[in-house]
Amino acid sequence: MNRWFPWLLAALALVPLLGGAYALRLGTEVVAWGIAATALAFLYRTTGLVSLGHSAFFGGGAYATALLVKNMGASVYPLAVLLAILLGLAFSLILSFLGLRSHGIFFLMLTLAFSQLVYILVKQGFPGITGGDDGLPGVPRPPGLEEPAVYYLAGLALLLGILLLYRAFIASPLGQVMDALRQNEKRVEVLGYNIRRLKLLASGLSGALAALGGAYLVGYRGFVHPHDLSWTTSGLLLVMAVVGGMRPLSAGVVGATILIALEAFLSSYTDLWNLFLGIFLMAAAWTALRSRGAIHVGA
Amino acid sequence: MWALELRQVYKSFGGLLALAGVDLKVSFGERRAVVGPNGAGKSTLFRVAGGEHRPDRGEVLLFGQRVTGLPPHRLAQMGLARTFQVASLFPEKDVLGHVVLAALAFHSLGHRPLPHRLSALEGQVLEVLERVGLSHRARTPVAALSYGEQRLVELAMALAQKPRLLLLDEPLAGLAEEERERVKGILHTLPREMTVLLIEHDLDFAYGFADRVTVLHQGQVLREGLPDEVRRDPQVIQVYVGKDQEADAALPSSSSPRTGPALLEVRGLRAGYGQGEVLRGVDLEVRPGEAVGILGRNGMGKTTLLSAIMGLLPAQGEVRLEGKALPPGALGRAQAGLALVPQGRQPIPGLSVEEELLLALRPGRWTLEAIYELFPRLRERRHAPSTVLSGGEQQMLAIARALLRNPKLLLLDEPTEGLSPLLVKTIREVLRELSRQGESLLLAEQNATFALGLVEKVYILEKGRIVECTEAACLRHEPERLRMWMG
Amino acid sequence: MEFYLFVLLNGLAYAALLFLLAAGLSLVYGVGRVLHLAHGGFFMLGGYMGYSLYQWTGSFWLALALAPLLALALGLLAERLVRVVYGPERALEQVLFTFGMAFVISDLTRLFWGAQVLGVPPPPALNRPMDLGAVVYPAYPLFLILIGAVVALGLWILMRFTRFGLEVRAAAGHPQMAEALGVPTTQVLQRTYLLGVALAALGGVLAAPRIALAPGLDFTMLILGLIVVVVGGLGSVSGALYGALLVGLADSFGRTFLPQFALAVIFLLMALVLVFRPEGLLGGRR
Known about the structure:
The complex is a heterotrimer. By secondary structure, chain A is mainly alpha-helical.
């Protein structure tokens, strides 16, 4: 995977030149979703935790940015994005604090419940602020980045920066410890590391990054919708991360590319996108099992 | 001030008291071996000392400071390092990665989030790898290492932490001969300032390595002192080898050699855990109505053998019951007529005594009533949850439910482990009675005298192989031979 | 006073539905160590199949009887698939697989029944108010409470007094030892799964006269089911019962006093439990 990843990036960089407006739109989606899927993969890669509620951060980041920018003008974009990231960080930390006191499975349920909570609150709880079922349209573009191609390239640069930071982080001492955390948590603890703190850190970073992805998405798309907070979005992010392989740095971006291309292709033929997503997920589980070892039946 | 001190430490799990008021004082720079039969509480002691378990009562002091209840990483930061009995590594990393991680733990570099040249650590890491002899394997992923090499990585990690106190959990377990020598060599060259606490079943090594020895029995310190004193202490010998005047009193009646087709046939059995091979080709036979013993010191493979015969472990080789090959899993073998009284009794959480018995029940000679007659105590406690029973009661339950399977062959794994002498006597009487009634028994025991007072034929298991097979009567009259194998 | 009784009874009726959903979820986790994220889908399927059966036969009671049976048939297929991800070390694969199954059920349901909101009227016999002295209350939710109590009792008897229940508890408590004592854990798992699915579908049919059938119901119910088992403790039927009662009542009172934030109240409940008693109120086993 890692060998032809630079080629993929190069191809993505060439989209404004070779593709049309539609390709550019898809490319921007790839960047936004790619950032969020990378966040999800990062969380799994370091801690072994699976989040089923990353839509809360992804969509939440979008909503936070949209709200601020709509009400205070496009000039506050930097502030809005920063706020989105901080919110993602904060809620992620709270969730992991609650969920890590026992089994990892509780973290999973907690993320799912939390994202559902956010979804309902946004959809029905505060419709005056959040636009309820209709979402928030009319979000302006950031100043200086109004051109789609420019916005896209800026996003690509951002993505590249994130991936380089990710790589640097994994190569660092702390990153090495986090890498080991998923593989054998107990051992890491016995060596003298505070694993709860490490998990909190990974979780916070993951939430923050996903929120950044959401902020990027809304800046381009111009609107945000409760669907961005739904379980379908969480599921899609998970499939992306899994299809990309979960562990490599490229996982999120590769997965996002494949899934967005697939959705673009399939949506012209069928309405049953969730069905395919579901089958994809099941197939991914099967493959993950096979690569881990023999398929073992029974308790 | 002591390097490690345990004051009146109690720890129980469910109904079982694993540590019953243990006092331990280890001086700085001392080499202490903790020995004792299975079930004595050695692992629990280690886990309490390592911060994995919090004692119910009592205090743990590390380098003079109260550390009772602190999590493992805090203890590690204070200077404690541990190795695990079964290598606990990071499957995707290489050897170097492991040692670096260990060395980083309390280095200020450990928390740097950006790449940093680790030159400061390089020297230390390379030195450790030299020490354990893994320099040439530094870049090899640990998944590709042999079991012995993996254990060496464990050791290397512990050394890289530059601990002040090192807890070694059976460092020689499961290793082949050359590997054992290598590890022994490394252990002998440990710096003198390092305090070492060691659990080991290889008593020759333990006694040779340690400055002082603590013997645990049934969760309490039985004896503590210099190796030679402890080794010769009659109480200690009794606990290990078993010495019971009544052993000779009632010998099993059948002394004529058994003929006829074998009930159980095992040929070339190989099995192990993870990378380690514990059984290296075991052959044995049990004839109908026979009582057969498997003797051997701890760590030689007795439990692995019985588990493999029962189908609880994947294994290679042949296991036949009444001439027919047995299916691979435990369910199939249970249905075919094997029943296991497992090590540690293994009560089923959530079930009462009677429920466990009913669960096991199969038609045949043994009925619920008959069992209650044999074990009146179980009748009294029949509505109690099985997990709150005392050790002896749980052992009776384990035997009872295996009997209720009305099996063709009863497998018993260390049925006397952790039991008081009175209970040991009771169990022996029960087993003798079963044997008299014609039940076929395969018994694995480290308490040799107990076994010899019960069985007709004995196999001795040493490092995964059968090294001797003789009449029990012979061994009973040759205590030296027995001592040689049992330590 | 009358008002509070009303809210209380509503909460209990809702708790009955939640119990039917959560009991299966909890049991399947206890025996197979797998979190069945498609469980909400079977609840919803039960409701939709109940709707179709009602349309076809005109009888609510027939629909009630047949829908769980249909769900069992589907469950047989589903179980053969889920079987590959049983076991404690497979968190990621379990999530992927059961979540994927949930998506499949979700879209297939939308394909067959469409996206509009469907409903089933309560049977005429129960479509009237009952005078309970202190309060006048509709018969149908009372019926739900009754069914919930009957099922809870039935499950208790099943677990405590039957061979199947014994095997389920043994497989949940110590699967290896249970196998060595002749318990066919794979079969036990299968039957537990089927039981869970049937209960969920039953809950779905019963819910149809009270809750709107529309896409999204599966995940809404799944979330609630998860909260119930977190609060009550994973792995036991009694945990599901207590959790369902708490969540049902919290929901009812929440809806009454803080209408848009009912779910937030429930979520807060879950958060509190996780902080102070992470194994759940009745948890504490593996």
